[in-house]
Design goal:
The protein has 1 helix and 8 strands, in the order ββββαββββ. It has one helix at residues 70-85, and strands at 12-18, 21-23, 27-42, 50-65, 91-98, 104-118, 129-136, 138-141. Strands 1, 2, 3, 4, 5, 6, 7 and 8 form an 8-stranded antiparallel beta sheet that branches. This is Phage tail protein.
């Protein structure tokens, strides 16, 4: 089998693990992630400016079709935990990418804080899509 020339969206799978439990979101339709940095600048008197980007976590979002109450139940539990005990638990997001050569790369977004930024628009004969936005402490390569 020959290698593919580039990645396409179908080469990515996303799994959410929160408080040690997998949250099933069967039909993820989009995923984005961006590295966050804090830029330091040096302006030497005898040279051009120099810039240093210090890692500052990751952010992103994923969109999925509402196939069940998984996300709604998760965020109800997050709110309940906060209001009853003042606790906020962080989760992990796993991204699996099938590379062009057929190998699998796995990345873990650790210490992820989650927001249900879109709980869905319910309209007759229209798919209900939901969106989770996240910020994470770091992205580690697992394999």
């Amino acid at each position: 089998m020959s290698a593919k020339p580039f990645n396409i969206g179908r080469d990515c799978r996303v799994v959410l693990v929160y408080d040690g439990s997998r949250v099933d979101l069967p039909t993820v339709t989009g995923f984005t992630a961006q590295q966050r940095t804090h830029q330091l600048t040096s302006n030497p008197l005898n040279d051009m400016p120099m810039f240093y980007d210090v890692p500052g976590g990751w952010g992103g979002q994923f969109t999925f079709q509402r196939d069940g109450a998984g996300a709604d139940d998760l965020f109800a539990a997050i709110e309940s935990g906060f209001w009853s005990a003042g606790t906020v638990v962080l989760g992990s997001i796993y991204q699996y990418v099938t590379e062009c050569d057929g190998s699998l790369s796995t990345y873990e977004f650790v210490g992820a804080s989650l927001q249900l930024s879109d709980a869905g628009h319910y309209q007759s004969e229209t798919l209900v899509n939901q969106t989770i936005t996240f910020t994470a402490r770091a992205r580690n390569r697992i394999s």
